[in-house]
Amino acid sequence: MDEYEKKFADYCKSKELFFEPLYFEGSTHSVAEAANVAGCTAEDLVKNICLLTRSGGLVVAVLRGDLRLDKAKLEQLVGERLSFCPVEQVLEKTGYPAGGVPSLGLNGRVFVDLLVVERGVVLCGGGSSKSLARVRASDVVGDSGAVVADLVKR
Questions:
Q1: What radius of gyration do the chain's Cα atoms show?
Q2: Fewer beta carbons under 10 A from the terminal one: N or C of the chain?
Q3: What is the pLDDT of residues 106-134, one digit of tens each?
Q4: How far apart are the C-alpha atoms of 121 and 119, rounded to whole Å?
Q5: Which CATH number fits domain 3-149: 3.40.630.30, 3.90.960.10, 3.40.50.720, 3.50.30.40?
Q6: What is the C-alpha to C-alpha distance for residues 45 and 33, in angstroms, rounded to an integer?
């Protein structure tokens, strides 16, 4: 367990949130890699897309792994234009490295797609690019006070 995986596990324990950590030899950085090493489909995974406001504030969109973000929908909800967070800033903004950002314990404004909420339990980043965690979709919403909305490109 690396320092970020431990940080995530400690956070979940301190908040008494359900989580089941999963550690792998292979990479979980991308949805395709995560689905491959976890033996699941992209639908079972959630991805956390990190964006920034003009002033540098973090906005996180949580989507099912098989879907694409409609950035215009998210910008309308936020009320301003957003830019994708550069990979080199993800650690600074989230506290976790890119490819391992969990869906719990997020800083900033969090928006969760409607289809994530329907899932019950989902697999999210586990703190590193070699880990995932099973978490409750309801905890993803409740932990961050997320806004639930249609965020998917159709």
A1: 14
A2: C
A3: 989 999 999 999 989 999 999 999 999 99
A4: 6
A5: 3.90.960.10
A6: 11
pLDDT at residue 1, as a whole number: 83
Question: What string of DSSP letters covers the chain?
Answer: --HHHHHHHHHHHHHT--EEEEE-SS--SSHHHHHHHHT--GGGBEEEEEEE-TT--EEEEEEETT--B-HHHHHHHHTS--EEPPHHHHHHHHSS-TT---SSS--SEEEEEHHHHTTSEEEEE-SSTTEEEEEEHHHHHHHHTPEEE--B--
> What local confidence, expressed as pLDDT, does residue 4 receive?
96
In this predicted structure, the answer to whether residue 17 has a pLDDT above a threshold of 90 is yes
Rounded to two decimals, what is the model's pTM? Answer: 0.95
Residues, the chain? 154
Instruction: Please give the structure tokens belonging to residue 58.
Output: 């973090």
Token duo for residue 25: 């030899």
